[in-house]
Amino acid sequence: MTAQRSSAEHLPSVHQLKVGLEGMKPPVWRRLVVPSDVTLGSLHDVIQVAFGWQDIHLHAFEDRMGGRYAPPEDLDIPVFDEEEAVLADVLPRTGDRMDYTYDFGDDRLHRITVEGVRPAEGGEGECAVCTGGRRAMPPAEDLGGGWGLAELLERYADGEHPSPAPVRRGGEEWVGYEGLHDEVLAGLYEEGFDPAAFDPAELTRSLAQVPMRRAAVPRARRRGRRAERKAPQGTYRCECGEFHSLPGGAVPLADGDGMGEEASPAGLFDAADVRLPAVRLPGEAELAHTVREVPAFMAAVQLGHWCGGGRELTPKGLLRPKLARQAVEEAELWRLDSEEWGDPEQRAARLAKIRSAADMEPLDLPWEWALNCGFIDVDGNRAHAGAELPNEDDDAALLAAWQEAVAGAVTELALIFPALDGPLGELAPLRELTDAAPPLVFLMLLAAYGLPDGEWVDAADFLTDGLSGLAEGLARQLVSALLADQYHDIAGTLELFGAAERDGQDPRADDAVLTLLFDGGGQGMLPADRFRLTALGRSGLRALLVTAGIPAPVIGSLARADARELLAALPSYPAEADAAAEVAGWLAARSAADAAVQVVDACDGTEPADALRRLEAPRILAAVLDADLTGRAKTVLRKAAVSQITGCAHAAASMLRRIDEPAEGEAAWGLEWMLVDGALPFAAAGEQALRDRLLAGPGDGRRPLDQLAERADELWRAGHPHTGEVLGALTDAVRPLDKALAKRLRKAAFKAGSAK
Question: pLDDT tens across 304-321, in order?
Fold first, then answer.
C-alpha cells in the first residue's frame, strides 16, 4: 500500500511576528505576517522597510542560544549564513524570540517574537504583510542609539525649530544646519511628520516590493566550514557534526564535594569570578607569516592544493601508492622531518619500498589534518581540494583556517576529560568520577593565555592545585594519570600547530594510566615541564573563546565596538594607560553626543554584569564631557537622569552628581540605589571580594566603606531588586572591620525584607 501524505503537508505556512524597536517610549513596533520558509536574509529586508532603515550599516540576528546570523563576509567572527537559515527552522514555535541588531555603532536593537504559526490564508505567503503597529518612524540613520532618536522626537514635540545657517561653496549658497540632528528635525517640520500616525496598509504596499527569498536546500554539515553555524554559546561542535554542551568544571575541585556541575564557560567564568585580561596580539599579516612557518599545518594546506581537481583513492580511502610517493615529493611533505627524509636519493629509495600510503610516514599527519580541517574532500574514490582550503597568499584566509583548526583541536582534546577505555570504563564509580571531572587542562590554557610574554605555567603545580579538593588515594592517582595523558596530548598537538612551547618535557608520561595500573604511580604522575602559548596560540584560543561567548578583549581593537562591549571589557585591561587609550580610540570614532547616548543605553539592567558596566561608565562619560564642545552630551545625561529607565537613569544621575550639576528630579533615585548597585557584583563574587572593594579607593578620597557608613541606615529604602541580598552580604563583609556598622547593616537588611 502506498503511503499517502496529508494535504496539509503541502500547504504553505506563515509566521505572525511582532517586531519591536527596543528602548523607545512610547513603544514603536510592527506586526508582520511573512512566509515561514523565507531566509533570515529576506526577513532582514522586511525589517528594513518596516522601520524605515536604509540598509547602509551592518546587521546581525541572534537567537536565544547565542547563535548569530548575518552575511558571513560582513563580520570577522564565525556566523550562521543568514541566506541559508530559514525562519521556520530558527523560530519554529509560538513564543520563540530572537534579536535583530542594525548598525553596530548605534545598536538599533529589535526584539522579534513569534505570535503565531498557521497555514497561509488567501493572498498570504507570497510577500510580507503588515497587520498592525504603533508609532511612525522618522529618518533615523546615524542619530545615535535610542537616546538620540528619543531626543530628536522630544525636540520635535516641544516645537523646537533648528536655526538654519547659510552655507557657501563653489560660488553657490544654500541653507544648512549644525549637525545631522538639526537637519533631520528641519525635515520633519517640512513634511508635517506625525509621530503618532501609522498606517499598516501603506506599509503593506511598500512590503509588496520586497522579494521573498527561500532557502533552496538545507545547509550541508561539514566540519570546519566558515559559513556553517558557529557553536552557540556554551556548546562546541563534535566530530559527529552536532553541537554539545561544554563541560564546566574548569575550576579547582571543591572541598571534596565532588567534581563540580556542568555549566557553560561564560556562566562558569561569572561564578568563579574569572576575567580574562586584555592582551596584545600582532597584526593579521604578522600572524599569517607565523602560520606559514608552521610545517605540519602548511603541509596539510599544500597537500590540499596538490589534490586539486582530484586524486584517485584505493577502496580503503587511501591514496594509490604511486600518487602517495608523488605527494611526498611534489607537496614537499618530507620537510616535516628533514633530518630523516631530507636526502633525495635515500628518500626515493625508501619510498619505492613502501607498498601502501598507510605506511608512508611523511604523508600520515598532513593527510589526517587536511581531512579534519576540510582542506581535502573525499567523494567516492577520489580526493579533491576541500571547500575550506585557504589560499596560501591570502593572509586573512590562511590565519582564519589555522585558528579554526587549532580551536577544533583545543575543543576536542582539552575541554573533555579523558574517558576510561576497556574494562575500567565499566566500573561505575570510576566512570562517575571521570564524567564529572573538570577540564583542568583547559583552565591551564586560560592561565597561559593571560600570562605576560616570556612567563611560563608550571604544569605539575597547576594541576596539583586543581586536585586539592580530592583526597589522597587511588582515585586521585587515577585522575592525575588521566590529566597527565591529556596534558601531553594537547601540549604536543599545540606544539605541532606552532601554538605552544614546552620546557623540560617529561619522557616518562607516554601513557600515565598504563604506568599507574601496571607499574604503580604516585606523586610523579603529573607532567614535570613548563608550558606557554605563543602569540599565534593566543590568537587561536581567543577565537574559540569569542565563539563561545566569553569576552576576550584585545588592546586597541574596540574602536568600532558597541558601548556594552567596551564597558564589559575595560575591567580586564592590565594597565590604566591601556584602558584610557582604548576609551580614547572609541570616542574618536563617534561624536560626544552619540557616545553619551550609547554609554547610557548600555547601563540598563539590574544583574551583577549590568552593575559592572555601570561602574565603568563614569570613566567614559567623564572623557565624553571633556570632549563635548556643544553641550549636547550633558543634555543627554539630564534627560536620561529623569527617564525612569532602570540603570540608565541611575548612571546618568550619578554622573551629573559627580560634576555637581544634578538633574532636576534626579533625587528620586537617591544615592542608596547606586551604593547597593555598586556592591552587587562584588557580593556575587564572595565575601573577600566585597571586603576588598569596600576598602579600595583613592589615597586622598573616600572609600566605598566610608560612603556606606554615611548612609547605612537608609539603604533599605534603595528600591533595588537585590537590596536584601546585598545588605546581607555587606553585613558579613563588614563585620571583621566595623562591628557597629555591621549591626546597622543587619537592621537595614531586616527592614528591606519586611518592606517587600
Answer: 999 988 999 888 788 888
